[in-house]
Each structure stands twice: as structure tokens, then as C-alpha cells.
Give the backbone structure.
Amino acid sequence: MTMAQTAGAARTFPQGEPIIQCQGVHKWYGEFHVLKNIDLSVAKGERIVICGPSGSGKSTMIRCLNRLEEHQKGSIIVDGIELTGNLKNIELVRREVGMVFQHFNLFPHLTVLENCTLAPIWVRKKPKAEAEEMAMRYLKRVRIAEQALKYPGQLSGGQQQRVAIARSLCMSPKVMLFDEPTSALDPEMVKEVLDVMIGLAEDGMTMLCVTHEMGFAKSVADRVIFMDRGEIVEQNTPNEFFNSPQSERTKLFLSQILNH
Amino acid sequence: MTDNVHTGNVHTGSIPDERPPANTVGPVAWLRNNLFNTWYNALLTILIAWLLFKAIPPLLDWLIFSANSFGTPPQVCRQEGGACWTFVSEKLRFVMFGTFPYDEQWRPLITIVIIIALVLASCDRRFWKPWLGLLWIAGLTAVGVLMWGGVLGLTYVENTLWGGLPLTLMLSVVGLSVAFPASVLLALGRRSQLPAIRVISVTYIELIRGVPLISLLFMASVMFPLFLPTGVNFDKLLRAQIAFIMFAAAYMAEAIRGGLQAIPKGQYEAADALGLNYWQAMGKIILPQALAISIPPLVNTFISFFKDTSLVIIIGLYDLLGTAKAALSDPAWRGFYREAYLFIGVIYWVFCYSMSKYSQKLERDLHRGHRR
């Protein structure tokens, strides 16, 4: 444990104004201690990749950041608002934090365009025409504008995930959370989704991404966080992280995912 | 870029398509596959054909060939045998409108037209706009004015004189249209995070669902007045209507809960993550999907409640079935049960079958495009 902490302190993060601050966050599922003393600060424009073995709490951690999961101890402050039981505050945070899910979770009864305009119209109270114009802009950006009037069920997995990204972007979020966005995709569709995410990163979006795509981590991340058994074991720049991992657990994990 | 998924199945192989062998298509193949595919199915087919042969000619004979046309007096009918359709033409107005004053029966007739028109208008999805609600309020107000009268120069008609088809339609249409939104709230309440709301919803549903409708109607007509201070009189028809609404709401709530449970957790999470509040998430995301799934059980409830309105006869209200029975008690027309029940049976069937057909169309429309 001490060693892991030392490793994490190899470099101080973040370097800039923080938009997310977690301090001493703990979470339990019943008796099971899923998150243990998570300290995390994310700067504006930072791109973070979170990796770790399954069951290590990485999804749970990012789901706490928009309160899809409740934490029981510690504090989480997003965009200046502390996440507590206050529903109004939760809704305010969720407006500014976009989320992309492993299973896309598009609304099957709405067209692609309606999926994208729903929240801007009802949450941001935008006029319909303006919302549609913005939606088309983002759909173009994820290169799927020509499918705008189709239903999600008519699209492939990769196309659905790109729509899901556009849907989140339509809320003009300050932070984007990605929860294993490529894990449910057929191999040939992973690239089209990663390309969109790389484009986003290049435009300076603040991103937290739970993923096993180490190539993506190497090429776009500012910081890689390794989690195991509910703790942040190590965090570093991708270069340092992959070339000189500090803790034994990280080394073991990297050897398992990179050498096959 | 990735349109490879839905390009359709165009054969471009080197072997040309051929027609299937002759004995696997066409009427002979159909007969063999559906009626005579095993020896016991062949036996069943022959048996059923024989039964139909025995049953249908006498039925047609009674219904049409030996039937006495409109106008034949009942005495002649009795001698001749065969259906006596004079009963229907003679008793039509009584069966349809009950004891509503004879000269004023154009009023319940218009009521029927208004209610059916409202229902038909509501069937068209293009009309699902806020003004449809206003149309309903206007329509039902017109119905109230027509039935009660007492204003606009219409004579006042007490609602104990109401009966027949308008009563059946009003009880079921008003009942179901109030019970439906109530049932949505109950279903949501049963799945609420707030314990108090959940307990109230569960208690209500289980309590109401656990007693027979008849006992609820009896309670509404006999027991309820006991709890009221003397002098306060609650209208009997209204009490029956409320009993119906309470019962239908509990049943439909369970149908809708089934739909709610079928919606994947990811839909709730996606709605939450976009910042929609509870009512927006329910109204825009969850309920549209849940209700579409619940259509078959909901229509089942609708149909069964439409017919269950005939139970009001036990508390002395004369709906369509009640007036038919009352018409049979006329000494001159005693004994024409078959004609009477067949006639109202056809009316009930037309309404129920339309509901069923419409629901199938609605299901197809709502699932078009987005079914995987």
C-alpha cells in the first residue's frame, strides 16, 4: 500500500484548475467495500484513462461522478457542486457531465435525431429548431448524419455508440465519462468509435474513460489510472505508466493484457 | 462508412434461384401440412368437418331461412319457429335507451354518437395533442347536458331513468379514461423510491384486487351510504362509476407495472445521466416504452371491463344487458331469449372486437422501426 502511494506521487496531478475533486470517497454494496479511499482530482481539459482488472471498481468510480451510484463516505465535487442527496444539485451536475455506456442505452422508441434533441429541449429548454440544428452538427461530427431519421435498432453497434456520443455532446457537457465504450462492440467497429473519441480529445474535451484499449491510452491520455480491488493503485503519464510501472500489481496487470 | 449491416439479402451467387418442388407449395401441400399431417389430425379434421356439417345448416336455417322478418307478430313467430327478428325491431329503442322518456330518446342517441366519435378521434395518433383533452371535456360536458337536461330548454331526466347502450358506454368510457391515468400513477407509485408512496400503492392495489367487483359494487350501493351523514345522498350511478374506476385502476396498474419492469435499467440510467428529472424520464423515456409493451394486457382489461359494466344490474341500474332482460319480461314477448341475447351479444362483440383490432394496429405502429 505504501509503495502504491509512493508510486502515485511520482508526479502530482492535475496541473490546472480542477473540475472534479474526490476526497476520501468510500462506497459499499451491502457488506462489500467497492471503493476505498479514492482521492482524485481532474483538471479541465485533462484526458484520463482508467484501467484495471474486472471488479476493481473503475466503473463504479466514474458512475459516482454523476451520481448514478451513491458514495457513502468522502466528498465529490463536480464543477463546483458537491454531490449529496440533493436532487436539484444532482440534476445540475448531470447536465454538465455526459456519459457513454458500454451498451449504448439509446432510446429505442425515438429516432436518432430525437435521441439527440430530447435532453437539450427538455433539460436545457432549447427551441426545437436550434436543438435539431445542433444535433445535426454533432451527428455530422460522428459521421452518422445520414442516419438521423432511423431508429437505433436499425443501426450497427458502432453506429449506435457514435450516436450515443453525439447525444451526450448535444448537452454541451464540460466533462465526458466513458464506461467501457468499446467493450460491447464487434472488433471491426471498435476503431470507428475510438476515432470519434480521439477527435474529441484533440478538441480539448475533459474525458474520463474506463477502457481496455491500451493503444488509445498511449496515444491520447494525459494520465493513466490503475485500479485494483477498489483502490487507485498507481497513476502516471502513459509513457511512465507503460514503460516503468511502479507497483507489482500494475506490472502483473500489464503483463497479462499486453503479452498475448 | 459501415453500412455493411443492412444491405439486404441480394443473391449474387453463381447458382440461380429455383422454384421449390411442386408438392411443397400450393393448396394440396397446404391441406397436407395443416389438416392431414398425421393420422390423428386427419381424424380430427374429419370429425370437425362432420360436426360443422351437422351444426351449421340448422343454425343458418333458424337465423335466416326460416326466420320471421321484421313485422311478423310474436304469435306467428311462436308457431312458425325460426328466429323472430320482430323482437329486435319492436324492442330496439327500449333495449338501446332503456326507460329514457320516449320522445326525448334522440338525446341518448346523440350521446352514443358523441362518445363513439370521441373514442374514434382518440384512436388516431395524429390527434394525440393537448387539444384532444379539451375535446374530451367538451364532449363529455355535452353528453352530461344531453342526458340530464334541465338547461337549454331540455327537460330534466333523472339518471335513474338512464339505461341501455349510453349507460354501458358512459360507464366504460368514463371509467376507463379516468382509471387509466390513475393506474399509471399507481404503477409508478408501486415502484417508487419513497417508502410511503410505495406502501400506499401496494396496499391499494392488493386490497382492491383482492375483492370481487360485485362486492365492491354492493359496497358502493349499500354500505357507502351508511358512512355518510343522514340527508347527504350520493348518486347511485356515480357510486357505481367510482367503484368501477377504483377496480379498473388496480388491475391496469399491475398490467403497466409488468411493462415498467421490462424496461432495461440502462434506459433509466441514460435518462438520468442526461439530467432529465423524474417526470421527464418517466414521461418521455420509460412510460412510452412500458405502455407499448403493456398493450396486450391493458386491452385485455379494457375488454373485460367493458363487459363487466353489465354487473351494475345487481344494484338496479339498467345497462345494455339489463334493458335486454327487461324487454324480455314484457308478457307479449316472453321467451325470445335467443334473439335478445344474440342481438346484444353482437353489439358487445362489435365493440370488443374493434378494441382488439385497434390495439393490434397500435402495437404494430408503435413497434415499427425500432424493433431489433
Observations:
- Confidence is low (pLDDT under 50) at residues 1-8 of chain B.
- The first strand of chain B starts at residue 163 and ends at 164.
